[in-house]
Amino acid sequence: MSLLEGKRLYDHVQRFATAFGPRPAGGPNETAAREVLKDYLHQHGIQQTTNLPFSTTNTWGYGLIVPLILALIPQCIPHTNRYLRTAASLLSLQQSWLALNGQMRYQPLYRLYPQYPGGTLVARIPAAQTPKHTVVLVGHTDSNKHRSTFSPELKRYLRLGSTSISVAMLGNIIASLLDEPRSRLATTAYMLFSLVSLIADELGPYVEGANDNGSAMACVLGLGEQALATPLNSTEIWLAFTGSEEVSHDGLNVMLDHYGAQLQDAYWIDFEMVGKGSIHFVEQYHGLNYLVTCQPDADSLHLAQTVAAKHPELQVTGSKPLIYDEVATLRRRGFRGITLVGLDSDGFLGNWHQRTDTIENIEPHALERAAQFAWHMMKHLD
Ligand SMILES: [Zn+2]
Fold first, then answer.
1. pTM of the model as a whole
2. What is the gyration radius of the CA atoms in the chain, in angstroms?
3. In angstroms, how far is the first alpha carbon of the chain from the final one?
4. Residues β-bridged to residue 349
5. Residues within 5 Å of ion ligand 1 by Cβ?
6. What secondary structure letter does DSSP report for 212?
């Protein structure tokens, strides 16, 4: 059996991800998954592993809910100074903006949210000869919650809903500054409604995360095994099992803090939910707000396009889906990066933040295609 065969990668999803159940960032299940991965790597001859520990909270909700509450308090207390209201709303918008951009960890209040012991596992597989290139394969280990806002009925309104909150906050700043009671009341009411919706969205259970992102863990591991069995000539491979992606890309940020200088010229291939639907490389990233967007670097995009043209049998094409993953952080910090992603026929990520994200709904052929495509990208670079 080939190391990248779908059935084998499917077994990896089961063994290294879903066997532990839901994996909230920093929780014991995520830690256990990382430990088992590390043992497996050691048993298979990959000795160069490092665990990067860090402190993390366990949901993005804090980063959106707390700023809204801080803006609403002076609005709801009668006779507050209008400059105080304006300043609170302004600060609140700026803080939510950080959360929407995957930078919640830079909020000054971040350390006050409940903290848990997170980690990122990094492994290195040397090239056969002197390395000329480095490829970092990324798959996050944490899972998100079941969210009603991501349901099949509501997900098409995600960007509209999220952007409308930012617009209401901006309107609230202006209304507070001008001390215009009716607009202030309208924007405050919308912010209150948003607050209730965001809290309701937090009440769902954590999901199994077979697709998001057990599928990535399986592909990264399978590709590591492949590189170990048939080493690339002049390309060193790093495997990055990152924690806390669903919170604030914390695990990747910590890895960049640690190895950034060494990996400045590396090619980063991120896997997101490649266990369902058709496989694509992301040509443009769209976040949960119309203003939040980013692009892969030109080198990675060119590499993906070349491999897609050379291997039509893999049926991998470019796409511009609703996704704002770790590549956004890579690009913001000046690194290369591109994502391989699985999309359903409706153009959305499969079972995204839904309780249906279970092992039964993983399609082995999708895993195999994503892994084969990445392998061809690595070989082409080599
Ligand atoms: Zn994910």
1. 0.95
2. 21
3. 24
4. 343
5. 212-213
6. I
What is the C-alpha to C-alpha distance for residues 247 and 293, in angstroms, rounded to an integer? 18
pLDDT over 90 at 79, yes or no: no
Q: How far is the CA of 262 from the centre of ligand 1 (A)?
A: 25
Cα of 196 to ligand 1 centre, how many Å?
A: 25
Q: Which residue has the tokens 């309208």?
A: 186
With cut-offs at 50, 70 and 90, classify the pLDDT of residue 149. very high
Reported as type and span, the H/E element at residue 120 is strand 116-125
Token look-up 């609005």 returns 75
pLDDT tier at 1, thresholds 50, 70, 90: low
Ligand 1 centre and the CA of 325: distance in Å?
A: 7
At the topology level, CATH places domain 6-58+115-146+206-381 in: Aminopeptidase (3.40.630)
Question: What are the φ/ψ torsions at residue 144 (nearest 5 degrees)?
Answer: -95, -170
Angle of the 82-100 helix axis to the 158-178 helix axis, nearest 10: 160
**Element (DSSP H or E) covering residue 216:** helix 215-229
- CA of 83 from ligand 1 middle (Å) equals 40
Fold classified for 61-110+152-201: Four Helix Bundle (Hemerythrin (Met), subunit A) (1.20.120)
* Model confidence band, residue 291 (pLDDT cutoffs 50, 70, 90): confident
Distance 3 CA to ligand 1 centre (A): 24
Percent of the chain at pLDDT > 70 equals 100
Q: Are 342 and 368 in contact (CB under 8 A)?
A: no
Residue type present at position 141: T
Residues 31-76: tens digit of each pLDDT: 999 999 999 999 998 888 999 999 999 999 999 999 999 999 999 8
> What is the pLDDT, as a whole number, of residue 47?
84
Q: Where are the alpha helices (DSSP H) in 44-157?
A: 61-76, 82-100
Distance 186 CA to ligand 1 centre (A): 35
The amino acid present at 70, given as its one-letter code, is L
User: For residues 236 and 124, is the Cβ–Cβ distance under 8 A?
Assistant: yes
Domain boundaries, the chain: 6-58+115-146+206-381, 61-110+152-201
Buried b (16+ CB within 10 A) or exposed e, 157-170: ebbeebbbbbebbe
Distance CA 143, CA 150 (A): 14
Going from the Cα of 272 to the center of ligand 1, the distance in angstroms, rounded, reads 5
